[in-house]
Amino acid sequence: MFLKSRTESDLLKLLGFLNNRMSLTEDDLKQYLYLKKGYEGELAFDRLTAATLNSDVYILNDIMLEINHSKFQIDSSLIIQDTIFPCEIKNFEGNYFYNDGEFHFSGSKSLITNPLHQVKRAETLLQQYLKKNGFHFRIVPYLVFINPKFFLYQAPQNDSIIFPPQLSSFMEKLNSKPPNLNGMQRKLADKMIADHIIESPYPKLPPYEYHSLLKGFTCAICNSFQIACGERKVTCKDCGFEEEVESAVVRSVEELILLFPSLKITTNIIHDWCGVVESRKTIRKFLTKNYKLMGHGKYSYFEVLLKE
Ligand SMILES: [Zn+2]
Description:
Layout: E1 2-4, H1 10-21, H2 26-52, E2 58-67, E3 70-80, E4 83-90, E5 94-99, E6 102-105, H3 115-132, E7 138-139, E8 142-145, E9 150-153, E10 161-162, H4 167-175, H5 184-195, E11 227-229, E12 233-236, E13 242-244, H6 245-259, H7 267-274, H8 280-290, E14 292-294, E15 301-303
Parallel strand pairs: 1-2, 4-7, 4-8, 5-9, 8-10
Antiparallel strand pairs: 2-3, 3-4, 5-6, 11-12, 12-13, 14-15
Helix pairs in contact: 1-2, 7-8
Bound molecules: zinc ion (ZN).
């Protein structure tokens, strides 16, 4: 049972918007693609747990906690009986090799951040977190490689690593434990959800400003800017996806406000931002319908509250 679902982080969303609307530096692009791939791997793990785990296993996705001024993040926490299984999900693809306790990507000399160290750190901090909050749970951490195209030469024999061919037996093993829920599991889950930290994505973004970003609708499916705007629908010239004009306007407003949280949303700005909608009246109609008008006359603007 998912007690906390997973959504695309604001950082990933924002990097995606910026990648469409400006050219990212090599490092920023790398960070974006790394986060995107990681997120896809986490979703693959969610599909697996949703399809195979007993409904009484509590699953908390994407939790970030802080203990003694150290933050730690757990991709997926499974709570069963008196045990919590924090899982670090890796969507590595291709051939890697393991040497001297470190992971290397085949064909490149550069070392990659050792995921086992990440797992160990999260375990240690989770231990402190449980102790401080008076929970007596065992911690059994796992490093899960979710991508079937991942291969690790000279893999260490380590029970806490789950390789792609071991995923189904891992799920069976978790399912073989009788749930034995006594209320403490739910208490722990609720506490972790309440303590979950949402970090601001903005310090991690490259600098950008309104005037230097490409304007226009982007396709909700393929991100193309090749959008034709009709009376009621916008159509992507690249993939053929059709969307109501209203929905495209609302999507663009929410993108803009996530990029510029303190910007005042006015008809003129949205008309400029959306690009292809000719009539300001149409823009104003959708803004009035979806958002609250604040102020008067030429100082009026729309209040946009983003959903979490
Ligand atoms: Zn498209």
